[in-house]
Amino acid sequence: MSVPVTRSLPYVLRDALQGRDLRLMVATAVSAPDTNHVRVELQGTQFVIPRLKSYNPVNAGDPVFILAGPALLLAIGSVK
C-alpha cells in the first residue's frame, strides 16, 4: 500500500515550516557516535548533531533529513 504524497514526511514538514525560520535540509550520514547523536556531512563539513530517539538505525552513506533553525540542528530521519 502506497502513502499519498501529501502524507509523506517531506511534504508535511515543508508545509508546516513555511513562513518560519526553520528549514528542512538533507545531509549524508557518516556514523552514529552514540545512541543520541549522528555524525553527518553537509557541504564538505562533518559535524555531530542530536537525533530523534525514533531515528534508528543510522547507516553510513544514507541521506539524512535535518531540521535546521537559528539555534537548532536535529536529525529527524532517513530519506529512504
Give the % helix: 10-25%
Average pLDDT over all residues: 86
Q: Please name the CATH architecture.
A: Beta Barrel
Write down the secondary-structure element order: HEEEEE
Would you kindly provide a written description of the structure presented here, covering whatever features stand out?
- The protein has one helix and five strands.
- The protein has a single domain, classed as Beta Barrel (OB fold (Dihydrolipoamide Acetyltransferase, E2P)).
- By secondary structure, it is mainly β.
- 11% of the residues lie in helices and 48% in strands.
Which SSEs are present, and which pair or pack?
Blueprint: H1 9-17, E1 23-34, E2 37-42, E3 45-50, E4 63-69, E5 72-78
Antiparallel strand pairs: 1-2, 1-4, 2-3, 4-5
